[in-house]
Here is the input.
Amino acid sequence: MTVIPIQQLPQDDVLQFFKEHWGSTEMVISSGIYDCSKLDGFAYVDEQNSILGLITYIIRAEECEIISLDSIVEGKGIGSLIVQAVEHHAFEQGCSMITLITTNDNLHALKFYQKRGYYLVEIIKNAVEQARAYKPEIPLIGNDGIPIRDEIRLAKQSGLL
Here is the structure.
């Protein structure tokens, strides 16, 4: 098992992964609308090159924004490894900050990132309502029965990478 750049995977595998885990390759968040299958990223693959984890990101000047993160096997360190791969790459590219956006219902992501040194830096009220105008299939209710309304931006300074 290993971490590889997403570009080393067959495009069909990447497309299928996003459709299976996100419903489509499109991510609509307050920082933009992204086709995750076209972004840079890293994948954690097994011996058969099956994707067990995948992360995408975009670099703008000195900031790297994580756009998506999926680990289909929980508790094995896969998410941590691919986040570290992005952090290392961002540092090499001269980024001074890594950011990401998640929704208010995603308590698992909030715990995951805070344990890895990320801070809550902004709450974007009713951002998901605006995203639904473009992508109406975004559910109204999320994890643990929590209404999905707001986005939360987290950040980590490069000195903490």
The chain has four helices and nine strands. The first helix runs from residue 11 to 22. The mean pLDDT is 92. Helices lie at 11-22, 78-92, 107-115, 127-134.
